[in-house]
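INPUT
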Amino acid sequence: MSRKGHDAGQPAVLDYRAVRKQFGSFTALAGVSMQVHRTEVVCLIGPSGSGKSTLLRCTNGLETIDGGEILLDGAALPRDPRGMRAMRRRMGMVFQNFELFPHKTALGNVASGPLTVLRLSRDEAEQRAAALLEKVGLADKAASYPSNLSGGQQQRVAIARALAMQPEVMLFDEPTSALDPETIGEVLNVMKTLAEEGMTMVVVTHEMSFARRVADQVVVFERGQIIEQGPPEQIFDAPLVERTRDFLSHLGWAG
Amino acid sequence: MELDFSPLFESWRFLLGGVGLTLLLSLLTVLCSLVLGGAVGLARIYGPAWLRAPLVFYIDSMRAVPVLVVLVWTYFALPIITGVALPPFWAALVALTAHVGAYVAEIVRAGLTSVRPGQTRAALALGMSQAQAVRDIILPQAVVRMLPAFGSVISVAIKDTAIATVIAVPEYMNRSQTVAGESFHPIEVFLTAMAVYFIILFPVTRAVDMVYARLAHLGRS
Amino acid sequence: MNLDWSVVWANAGPLAQGTALTVVLAVATMAIAIPGGILLALMRLSGSRLLSGASASFTELFRNLPLILVIYAAYYIMPITLDVAFSPFVTGLVALSLNVAAYNGETFRAGIASIRKGQSEAALALGMSRWQTMRDIVLPQAVRRVLPVLASTWVSLFKDTSLVSVIAVSELAYTSMRIRSQTFRVLEMLTAMAVIYWALGYPQAKLVDWMNRRFGVSE
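OUTPUT
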C-alpha cells in the first residue's frame, strides 16, 4: 500500500475560500474551504447531492459560484469568457459519462483540444494524440469510433483527451461510476499512474479503495459542507467525525 | 409609404363572409379527413392484407402530388370523367379531404404502432378480442400520442383552404384578392389578410400544445 | 369524352422546361433556407433576449401563414417597399425561402437541443470557445439528427413550388395549366401534370422513408 511521499510545503494550486453555490432555493455548497497542493491527489467523497461534483464544476467554470473565491495559483478565477477559456486550458476534466465526441475517432478525440484550442498543426496534434493513446494503452484503437469501444476504453480515451492539453490540474468527476466492474480497474490504473507521475488531481469518487491507496488527502462532504478532511489513514481507519463513520459504514466499508 | 386601409373598412362585410367560409371549409375538411384518414389508418394496420397495397398507394400518392394539383384536377378534370360538375366549394372539400386524409392516415398509423406490442398481448391474454383490445386499450393510448400531430392537421387544413382560391372558392383569400384588385390597395389588403390568418392559426397550435401537456401522462405505457 | 393525349407529347419541351424550373426553384430555396434555418436556430438558442425573441417571432409568423398568401403579399409588397422591380421567379424564391427557413429554424433548434449537454461541456472543459464548440462538436452531430426532417421538408418544398404558379412563374404547374388553356385539352394536361408531379414526388417520398429508417435516432 505505497503512496508517493507528499510534501505539504508545496504551493497551493487550487485554493477554495468559503465557496457558496445556490441552485434556486437549494444550497449546493454552503461555504467550502480547502486547498489542493501541487502534485497532490485529493479525493472528494460523500453522499449524492453533497456538493462534490458541484465544487468540481465550479472549479473549471462550468458553474459559476455565488459567494467566496476560488484561486488558481494565487489568482482568482476569471469571469470573462476569454479568461475562462485560458483557465480551462490549464485544467483537464474527465466526466462520468466520458462524453467522447461520437463523430470523431479515438485519435480525433484526443487531438481535438490541441487542434482547435491550441491551434497545433494536424501532424503535431495527431503525434501528441498517438503518444497519449499509447500511454493509456489504446494505441491500437486510434482509428476506432467511440461506439466501437467499451466503457473503460472510452474513459481512457477521455483521460488522454484531457491530458493532451497538458493541464496543470486534472479534475475527475466520478470517472468510474458509469463503468462495468470489469473495466473499472483499467481506468483506475491509468489514474494511479498519473498520480505517481506527479499530476495534481482532484477526484470525486465512490471507489474507496482507490482513495485509500492513491489519495494524499481525502475530503468528506455532506450537504454542501466539508465535515472532515485529512489523510486516508485518518478518514478510513480513525475518523474524527461521527458522520464520516456513518457514511463509510453505509457503504459497507470495513476498513 | 402611406397606407390607406379605408377599402378594408368599406368591404369588411364581404371579407368577413370570406373568413366565415374559410372557417367552414376548414372545419368540414378536418372532420372529413379525420374520418377518412382514421379509417384508412386503421384499415392499414388491422385490415385485410389485399387492402394494404392500394391504401399505401393512395397515401404515398398524396405525399407526392401538391394540393394545388389535386384541387385543380378535382374541379376541372374530374367532371369530364364523371359527367358531374362539382361547385367550387364541394370540389375543394373533396380535394382537401383526399389530401389531408392521407396525412391523417399516416399520423394514425404512427400513433397505433407506437403503442408497445406488449399492450396488445396483455389485452389478448385477458381474453379480449382483437377489436376490443384495439378499442379499449390501444386506441386510447394511441390517440393521446397523436394529439400534437392533430394540431398540425388543423393548421394544415386552414392553410390549404387558402389555395382553394385558385378554383374560385369565395373564401377569405379569394375575397382578399377581389378587394385588392378593385381597390388598388393590395398591400393593405394582404397585410390585413396576414394578420387575420395569423390570428386564426396561432391559437390553434398553442391550444393543442396545452391539451397535450395535460393529457400526456395518459399515453405513456 | 374525346381525348387526345398527343397534346402531352407535343408539349414535352415546355413541360420539361417547367419541370427544370421547379427543380431549380426548390434547390435554390433550400440553398438559402438551410443556412437561414441554422442562423435562426443559433439566434434562438443564444443567450440574447433580443436575438432569441426575433428568431422566435419570425418562426411563429411564417409557420402560421398560408404560403400562397405570403407569395401574393411578397409580389405586391416587395416592389413598393424596396423600390426595385423583381421578377416573379425572385419573388417566389423569396417567399419560399422565408417560409422554409422558418421551418428549418425549428428543425435545427430541436436538433441542436437534442445533443446532450455533456458534449458541449466536454468541449468547453478543453478550453474551446462557445463558437468552436458549436462548430466542431454540436452542429456536426445535430446535422445527422436533422437529416431525415430536412428530407421531409424538401419533399414538401418541392410540392409547394407549385404555388408560385399563381404569380406566373413558369414552373411545372403554370406551364401545364397554360398549355391547357391554349389547347383546351383539360383532362389530358391536368392528368399529365399530376402524373409528372407523382413521378417526381413518389421516389422522393420513398427516399425520406429510407432516411428515417437509416438515420433513425438511437441514443
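end of record. The radius of gyration of chain A is 18 Å.
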